[in-house]
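User: Could you go from structure to sequence for me? I need the amino acid at each position, not a summary. Structure tokens:
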């Protein structure tokens, strides 16, 4: 049963007025460079302001499954969780997370523009507080490009074992892999999801993936492809653009970016259903703080993900430590976004469970 926004606001106001908000929070995210950027931009300043202790948990890859389990057990141990857009839609539909009124619970832009207008189309779910625009793209070892061969430029190069021999790494789930497989097998961009709704389309995507299956290491934690690239165990692998930025710019690793057909997506906050009024009030206070215009711009000082608010974009400046301009490293920069694939969040919310089962069965064959 979903909590109404009136009840939600009333409980939050009562808890805040009574000084009863929880003083410890568990915030769930993805780990690595991304969680570090949240620590610097959100957690540390929030703790300094409020005295709240924030406990980090890197379970977002299993976010929906774990929310289901906690809901069934009646024991919700998370206070705020970072979810991709499609997973948020699923969790919201199932009543696992609460609805948010952006113009009540989120801060307006500095010029007074309501949050609903400032976030605009990024508000893909009534339970969502989007924070970043990111992409899943490909990194490759620059020192493993065959002599006399041009460096790879995008997703379709992962299927060319003759031109680019060596191991690959792909995420152990259907999202992005199925779209890339169809796209690189000749399906037009605008027809990919219609094709994937058919049995023939699913078989076609899996058949394309079969061509590289025995040369692919399948990852589930986002740190894995980064480590595989760093160790030279793979030639090319899919991962999140911010983690590749960290490898290339911050760590000076021999890694290049292959941007073509990067998969655009959103990440953002959700609050689990079933919290006590005190914990819910603290979670609401935290998300209001961490999703305001300045905080989202601040995160871009530490990682190359674009802020989800329009008012934050002009505030994106230089890397906090390196002093370099961050704009050219964003997935939305025109030089990086010549061919992009926008994740259809609503489609995946409808088909994810079925395709997950089908994809895992294919992997086990």
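Assistant: Here is the amino acid at each position, in order:
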């Amino acid at each position: 049963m979903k909590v109404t926004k009136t009840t939600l606001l009333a409980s939050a106001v009562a808890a805040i007025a009574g000084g009863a908000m929880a003083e410890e929070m568990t915030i769930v995210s993805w780990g690595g460079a991304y969680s570090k950027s949240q620590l610097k931009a959100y957690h540390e300043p929030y703790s300094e302001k409020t005295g709240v202790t924030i406990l980090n948990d890197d379970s977002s890859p299993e976010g929906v499954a774990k929310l289901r389990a906690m809901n069934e057990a009646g024991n919700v141990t998370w206070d705020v969780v970072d979810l991709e857009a499609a997973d948020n839609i699923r969790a919201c539909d199932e009543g696992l997370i609460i609805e948010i009124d952006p113009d009540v619970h989120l801060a307006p832009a500095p010029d007074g523009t309501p949050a609903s207008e400032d976030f605009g189309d990024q508000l893909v779910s009534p339970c969502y507080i989007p924070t970043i625009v990111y992409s899943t793209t490909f990194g490759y070892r620059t020192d493993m490009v065959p002599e006399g061969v041009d460096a790879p430029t995008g997703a379709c190069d992962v299927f060319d074992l003759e031109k680019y021999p060596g191991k690959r790494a792909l995420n152990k789930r259907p999202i992005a892999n199925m779209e890339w497989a169809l796209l690189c097998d000749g399906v037009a961009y605008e027809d990919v999801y219609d094709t994937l709704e058919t049995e023939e389309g699913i078989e076609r995507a899996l058949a394309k993936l079969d061509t590289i299956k025995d040369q692919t290491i399948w990852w589930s934690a986002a740190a894995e492809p980064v480590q595989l690239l760093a160790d030279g165990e793979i030639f090319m692998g899919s991962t999140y653009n911010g983690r590749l930025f960290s490898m290339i710019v911050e760590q000076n690793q021999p890694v290049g970016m292959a941007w073509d057909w990067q998969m655009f997506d959103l990440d953002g906050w959700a609050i689990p259903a079933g919290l006590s009024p005190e914990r819910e009030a603290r979670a609401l206070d935290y998300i209001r703080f961490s999703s305001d215009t300045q905080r989202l711009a601040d995160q871009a000082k530490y990682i190359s993900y674009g802020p989800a608010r329009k008012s934050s974009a002009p505030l994106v400046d230089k890397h906090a430590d390196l002093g370099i301009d961050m704009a050219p490293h964003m997935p939305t920069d025109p030089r990086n976004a010549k061919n992009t694939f926008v994740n259809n969040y609503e489609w995946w919310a409808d088909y994810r469970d079925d395709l997950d089962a089908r994809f895992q069965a294919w992997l086990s064959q």
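One structural detail worth keeping in mind: Strands lie at 24-28, 53-57, 80-84, 129-141, 168-171, 216-219, 236-240, 255-270, 306-307, 340-342.
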